[in-house]
Amino acid sequence: MTYSMTMKMKPFLPFVISRATNITLMRNIMFKNWPHIPIVFRTLHQSDVLQNATIAEPISRPAGKHTVTLVPGDGVGPELMGGVREVFKAAGVPVEFEEVFISEISPNISASLNTVLDSFRRNKVGLKGIIKTPTTFKGGALQTLNMRIRRELDLFANVVLVRSIPGFQTRHNNLDFIIIREQTEGEYSALEHESVKGVIESLKIVTRKNSMRIAKFAFDYAMRHGRNKVTAVHKANIMKLGDGLFIQCCEEVAKMYPKIKFETMIIDNCCMQMVSNPYQFDVMVMPNLYGDIVDNLAAGLVGGAGVVPGECYSTSVAVFEQGARHSYAEAVGKNIANPTATLLASCNMLKHLHLEYHSKLIEDTVLKVIKGGKITTQDMGGYSSTTDFINAVVHSLP
Fold it and tell me: Between residues 42 and 357, which one has the greater pLDDT?
C-alpha cells in the first residue's frame, strides 16, 4: 500500500482542561516530546494533521526465525506465556523470544523501561502480558509503566477483537465486532494536581492530530477487513470541547469513506445498547477512557477477559496482548487461568509475521479444544487447569 499525507505542525497542540481554574498552572504545563509521527492510513486527501502515513506493516523476513520481544507481565502472565512457549514449540513455530520482565509491583527484579523500549524498537513485534498498576499513589511519577510504554512507542491504536467462540455458550452468541481505542491521551495523560487542599484537578487532553489519526485508523481498518459501519463513541453532550473535537474529526474522516456507514453514540447509551443489542455494532472507535470501559464490557459479552485478544499499533511497532487487561493476581500459582486470549493474541502476532500457516494451525486447534467441551477452565464453567488446556492444545495439533 502507498501512503502519503501532509501535516503542518502548529506550535502548540489544542487541549482541553477539566475544571482548570488555575491559569498559572496552564501556562506552566509543558507537553514535551509530542512526536511528529507519520500514521497509518491510505491516502485520501491532503490533511493539515497527517504526513507520510505508514503503518507497522506485517513483517516479511528471509527464511529463518523471527525474534519477538516477550514481556511476561504480572499476575498469571508468566504462567500463560509459558503455555505459549509450549504450544509454539510443539507446532514448530519459527519464533525466538527475547524475554524482558518489567513490573511496577516487583521493581527489585524489573528491567529498566529503556531496556524494554529498546527491545520493542529492535524487534518491531512484541507479545505482552498485563503489567499491573497499583491503585495507591505513594509519590513519584503519575504515569504508569503501561502509559509510559504506550507513550514512548506511540502505540496509539488499541484493537480488541470481540468474537463469540463456537461451542462456548454465553448470553449473546455469534458476536463479531471490533473496538478501536485511542490510547495515548484523554484522561490517561497523568496530568493531575491538588490546586488547593482537598481539591484535585485532572487534565483531559484531546488533540486534533491524535483524534484524526485514530479515526482514520478505524475507517481504514473497516475498509481492509470488509466491515460496513463505524460507530464513534463520545460524551460530547457534556464535554462539548474535548469530545466535541473528537467527534468533529470522526465526522471529517467519515466523509472520505462514503461506502462505510457512520454513526455517533453517547457512551452511556452505548453501554446500554451493548448489553441489550450488541449485534448492531461492527467497528467502534472511541477515546481512551471510554475504550478501556467498553473493552471490558465487551469481553463480558463473549465470556470474559480470558477469551478476548487484543493488539496495539504504532507506526513501527506492533504489540499483541489480552484485549481486556487483567493481571488476575489472585490466581497466581493456582493453575486456573484461561490461556485462550493469550494464545489467540499470539496467533494474531504470527499473522503479522506472515506465519499464516502456524497462526491458523494453532488458532484452529485452540477453538477445536474449546468446541469439544471436555477441557474448559473455571471461567468457562469447567474444572480444567491451565496445564490441562495447554496439554490438550499440544496433543490436538496435527
Answer: 357
- Strand 176-182 relative to strand 192-196: parallel, antiparallel, unpaired? unpaired
Round to whole Å and give the CA distance between 309 and 289. 19
In the block, residue with C-alpha cell 487461568: 337
List for the chain the helix, strand, coil content (%; round to 5): 40, 20, 45
d(CA 390, CA 84): 8
Distance CA 300, CA 160 (A): 13
Residues 6+ apart with CB under 8 A from 338: 304, 306, 307, 377, 378, 379, 380, 386, 389
Amino acid at 329: A
**CB-side neighbour CA atoms (13 Å) of 273:** 15
Average pLDDT rounded to a whole number, residues 285-308: 97
pLDDT in tens, 174-206: 999 999 999 999 998 888 889 999 999 999 999
In angstroms and rounded to an integer, the radius of gyration of the C-alpha atoms of the chain is 21
Question: Is 60 exceeded by the pLDDT of residue 5?
Answer: no
Calculate what percentage of the chain has a pLDDT beyond 70: 85
